[in-house]
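Hi P.,

Sorry for the delay on this. The queue was packed all week, but I finally got your sequence through. Input first:
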Amino acid sequence: MNQHRHLRGNRRAPAAVGSIWTPASVSGLQYQLDAGVLASLHQDSARTTAVASDGDPVGSVADQSGNGRYAAQATAGARLTYRATGISSKPAIESDGVDDVLPFSVAWGLANAATVGIRFKAVSTPSAVSFDTLLTLDDGTRGLFLMLCNYAGYQNISFSSKVIGTSAMVGINDALDTSEHTLVFSHSGGSTTDPAQYQLLLDGTNRTGDLVASDAVARGATRCAIASYAASALHLSNARYRRLAVYSEALTLAQMASLATWLEA
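Then the structure:
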C-alpha cells in the first residue's frame, strides 16, 4: 500500500475559446446529473412536486443527457436532500449515509470503455470496515463502481469498470477528507484489474501514474444507483453531489480536462 497523500487543490483546464463546452460536446454521453438545473429535481418519484428550497427531499433527478435515465426513490425516508449551497456555494443533492439512495429507472451498464466524472463532497468519511459508494451501474451482466473505502486491502478511492463476477478494482490511497473534489476516470475497455487501462484526473491533476491495484468488488444483484452499492449500511454514502457525467467511451486526457472544468463550474 502506498503512503497516504492528502487530496490536492484544483488546477483547472483553460476554457474553450469561441464555444461553451458541455458534456454533450463529445460522443458517448450516457447520463448527466446537474443539481443546478432545478427543473430536473422533484420531491417525489412521480415527478409531480418540484424541488424549490433548501432542505427539500429529492425523490427524482431527471437525466440531462437526453437518454431518459432518470433516478427516482419511491420511499419517502430514503430520498436525498436538496442543498441550495451544498458545494462551492452552489446547489447539490445530499445522501445521509443511513438509508438514502437514488436508483435509476432502468438497469443499464457499459459493455467496454467508460468515463465517469463527478463533483462531490463527503459530508463524513467512511467509518471503519465500510465502503461509501458514490455510484453503481450494474445491469445484471457487468458492473461499474466508484467508492470511498476504509477497509484493509482497498485504496481509499477505488473504482472499476466492466466488472464481471468478482474483479479487483484500482485506485489511489490519498487520505480521505470532507473537502470538495472533482474526479474524472476513464477505462480503455481492457482488463478491469490493470491500472494501466485507466486514466485519472483528481482536482485537475493527472494522477494516472499513482493508480495501483485495489481489492476486489463482487457484482451483486442488478442495481444501478447513486449513493449505494447494496442494501447495506456498509455501502451507503454520506455525500453531496453537484454534477455527474457518464460516458460509454474512454475520453482523451484533453476531453477529461474539459469535463473536469465543466464539473467545477
